[in-house]
Design goal:
The structure is a single chain. By secondary structure, this protein is of the alpha+beta class. It is about 15% helix and about 40% strand. The protein contains ten helices and 37 strands. An eight-stranded mixed sheet has the order 5-4-8-2-1-10-13-12. Strands 26-27-25-24-31-35-34-33 form an eight-stranded mixed sheet, with helices on one face. The protein has a five-stranded antiparallel sheet with strand order 21-20-19-22-23. The protein starts with 5 loop residues before the first helix and ends with a strand.
């Protein structure tokens, strides 16, 4: 096969019948280099070759770069090779450029190109992103960002003036050399196998190589900062904040009028929170100075929208106009723990507000005011955060909830008729993160509410009714320990619950189909359960007159390191009571122990398919 391209070789392998072994795509080569020429100027050069074997690998072969007033795509070229021939030469005009944001921050753009060619094909990119006026962090390098995409060869080089001090957090140590008055840091990665997707596997970011780096002293859009620790990061972020009390006078007066009859700070905070929900909407701004600095409140008031920084700062100033102090907070919603010893402005992706109260501390999500006031949602609960104050940043942690509180429970009554049809009544209770799905339930249209509540139901329901809905989403009174809870009662009719055969009726026990996924193949990666959750289902099957129970399935109890399961059946007056409980326990199960989990999952699935046998009385 000498002289053939990688794409041609892949095509021949397809014909040889080994396509089943092919990953979705392969990164054949990825060489990236960032050169810092001055505190505010740099150049990021990338050479990349990707073999795309099938459509689900197209993402790995797609070009995507974000730019703003401080970063420009200064050069771009490439080619597409298919069937051993170059089918297209790429130039900069081929890149699709779209304005991502305009009103809230300096303009930012999406630069993209999606290759099109018969599979398999090889795409090559050569491009340069030029930095000017602002460098607070260097481009991160993550050669594996997709599942099922191995990497044959990848390298990242950072070259800075030899006097420039930088910091980095990486999956491995670099090779460091001094060359021509430059300090050069180089990471190399070879023959990285693709990572296949498995349920409840550790996050991809934990399993792939990475490099994050930034200068300890930096200049950004005419400002200067240092980031030796979070205190220094906080000092710089504070310096970017718009002028305090910049809320328009008319808005201040409106807030004053809305809160004039409030008797406590908590009442006032709730009014402001409702005002935010009614008058603003969220839009993401991640680039330019808008990636770090909130938009001024007068612009938010005028436009009616803002990103997490803008809305958090806006609410902070609305509260300040009422004499209520609060603190601006930055957080990474993807990782509960910050990198040890690496304080960098580029590490966070979200902003919220912290309001110290007499009995409790409020952590306020300003981008989604449908989140109940007083609730720490799952993207921030337990996460390390940084409070931004005039004297610098202070690292702390948003309190997590006890594991036992995450519960969804169904109490069901299945009232059977002699023909096997039934009327099913359900009382569903959801707490903590399980209640998050219900935050906007009252805003759903009738048909959407039906689909939502009947998801997973067996049979063909008819005559659906929502009997009642109640929640405590506005009940927070400042007492620590508030947990959101929703309770909904609904009913429906369904045929075929019982199958009549002569003088016997075979009854499907559970109205809703619930299952635990378990792969048949050997497990490659550890099984990870991040937080405890529980599903509790109890079903009272009311048997029709003239029938008696002939057979009940046996109950059972199973347990493994990350899950417990319990099922029981017992006869009660007029029917049969069945209880099933699945509890997931926080922990990490080694891949070698996965057969225990598989057996438990099989038992759960069998339990939810249980049937009991009724027989007509003679």
């Amino acid at each position: 096969m000498k002289g053939l391209s990688i794409a041609a070789i892949a095509a021949s392998l397809l014909l040889a019948g080994v396509a089943h072994a092919q990953p979705a795509a392969e990164v054949l080569e990825m060489e990236a280099k960032f050169t810092l020429s001055s505190p505010t100027e740099g150049r990021f050069e990338v050479h990349q070759r990707v073999l795309v074997n099938k459509q689900n690998g197209l993402g790995a072969g797609t070009f995507l770069v974000y730019t703003d007033e401080f970063r420009t795509l200064s050069s771009f070229s490439g080619s597409i090779t298919s069937g051993g021939k170059v089918v297209r030469k790429l130039k900069k005009d081929d890149v699709y450029v779209s304005l991502e944001s305009d009103a809230l921050a300096d303009k930012s753009y999406v630069n993209a190109y999606e290759p099109v060619a018969p599979y398999p094909f090889e795409v090559e990119y050569n491009y340069t992103v030029s930095y000017k006026k602002a460098i607070a962090s260097f481009p991160s390098f993550i050669p594996m960002e997709d599942y099922d995409v191995p990497v044959r060869s990848a390298s990242y080089t950072i070259a800075v003036p030899w006097t420039k001090k930088i910091q980095y957090k990486a999956s491995s140590a670099p090779e460091e050399t001094l060359s021509k008055n430059q300090m050069v840091y180089r990471w190399e990665f070879k023959d990285l196998p693709g990572i296949s997707r498995e349920e409840r596997m550790p996050p991809l970011a934990e399993m792939v190589p990475y490099v994050h780096a930034s200068p300890l002293e930096f200049q950004f859009a005419g400002t200067s900062g240092t980031q030796n620790d979070w205190k220094e990061v906080g000092q710089w972020l504070w310096s970017l904040m718009p002028a305090r009390q910049a809320v328009p006078a008319g808005v201040q007066q409106e807030i004053a009028n809305l809160t004039k009859d409030c008797t406590s700070d908590l009442e006032k905070i709730r009014v402001v929170y409702d005002f935010l929900r009614q008058h603003t909407r969220y839009v993401s701004i991640q680039l330019g100075i808008g990636g770090f600095a909130p938009t001024a409140p007068e612009r938010v008031a005028a436009s009616g929208f803002g990103d997490c920084k803008a809305l958090s700062f806006y609410m902070q100033q609305l509260l300040a106009s009422l004499g209520i102090g609060s603190e601006y907070v930055i957080v990474n919603t993807n990782r509960p723990k910050l990198y040890d010893g690496y304080a960098s402005v580029g590490q966070m992706n979200h902003a919220i507000l912290c309001v110290p109260m007499q009995r409790d501390t409020l952590w306020v999500e300003c981008t989604n005011p449908s989140v109940p006031l007083g609730y720490r949602h799952e993207d921030i609960a337990g996460h390390e955060v940084v409070l931004i104050r005039y004297d610098g940043g202070e690292q702390t942690r948003v309190p997590a909830y006890p594991d036992s509180l995450s519960v969804e429970a169904d109490r069901m009554e299945v009232r059977l008729a002699a023909d096997g049809s039934a009327r099913v009544a359900v009382e569903r209770t959801a707490r903590l993160d399980r209640a998050e799905r219900f935050f906007s339930f009252t805003e759903l249209k009738a048909d959407d509410a039906r689909k939502f509540l009947l998801s997973g139901v067996q049979g063909h329901p008819e005559d659906f009714r929502v009997e009642s809905f109640a929640d405590n989403f506005r009940d927070y009174d400042g007492t620590p320990g508030y947990v959101p809870e929703a309770r909904v009662r609904f009913s429906y009719g369904v045929s075929g619950v019982g199958r009549v055969n002569g003088d016997r009726m075979f009854v499907r026990v559970f109205p809703f189909q619930i299952s635990m996924n378990a792969q048949k193949s050997a497990r490659k990666y550890d099984l990870l359960v991040n937080r405890a959750t529980a599903n509790r289902d109890s079903v009272l099957v009311v048997i029709p007159e003239g029938y008696a129970v002939e057979h009940l399935p046996e109950g059972r109890t199973l347990s493994c390191s990350v899950a417990d399961f319990r099922q029981e059946f017992r006869q009660v007056d007029g029917g049969v009571l069945i209880v099933c409980e699945i509890r997931m326990k926080p922990g990490r199960m080694p891949a070698a122990d996965y057969p225990e989990y598989r057996e438990l999952a099989k038992a759960v699935n069998k339990a939810y398919e249980s049937s009991l046998v009724l027989k007509k009385n003679p």
